[in-house]
């Protein structure tokens, strides 16, 4: 059973850990992904692989803890599309973030969709259903 303080004030929620976004926790918060990404950009985040830990505090503020520069990982780019170069075809073999769920996946040069296997299967199910 939750204590009264948790019921009244809520608890801080870890939204990003080791560059991985917990979509379900973000979706259960009172903040949209657009608001969340804006708050991260205001703190200097360009892509989620820079973030060691991001906590949505009970007052709605976000605490962000960064990886050291030499520990930054690949991650979902959160800059507006007009600020970055977007690809329809993977330019070089490397690790990329899925455009839907942010999972880091290895892609080979020439592949056309930067999407995890799970997201691809969900899209295929939607097309056939």
Automatic annotation (TrEMBL):
Domain YetF C-terminal, first and last residues per copy: 4-72
UniProtKB keywords: Cell membrane, Membrane, Transmembrane, Transmembrane helix
Pfam families linked: DUF421
InterPro entries assigned to the protein according to its UniProt record, in alphabetical order: DUF421, UPF0702_alpha/beta_dom_sf
Localization per Swiss-Prot or TrEMBL: Cell membrane
GO cellular component, one term: plasma membrane
Membrane topology: Multi-pass membrane protein
Domain of life, per lineage: Bacteria
Statement: the UniProt record of this protein carries the keyword Membrane: yes
Family affiliation: Belongs to the UPF0702 family.
The protein, known as: Membrane protein YcaP
Native organism: Escherichia coli
């Amino acid at each position: 059973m939750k204590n009264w303080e948790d019921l009244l004030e809520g608890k801080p929620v870890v939204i990003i850990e080791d560059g991985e976004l917990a979509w379900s926790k973000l979706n259960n918060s009172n903040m949209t992904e657009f608001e969340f990404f804006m708050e991260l950009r205001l703190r200097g985040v360009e892509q989620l692989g820079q973030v060691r830990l991001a906590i949505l505090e009970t007052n709605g503020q976000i605490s962000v803890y960064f990886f050291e520069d030499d520990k930054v990982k690949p991650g979902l780019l959160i800059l507006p599309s007009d600020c970055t170069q977007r690809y329809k075809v993977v330019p070089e073999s490397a690790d990329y973030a899925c455009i839907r769920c942010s999972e880091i996946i290895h892609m080979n040069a020439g592949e056309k969709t930067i999407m995890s296997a799970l997201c691809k299967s969900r899209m295929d199910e939607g097309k056939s259903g």
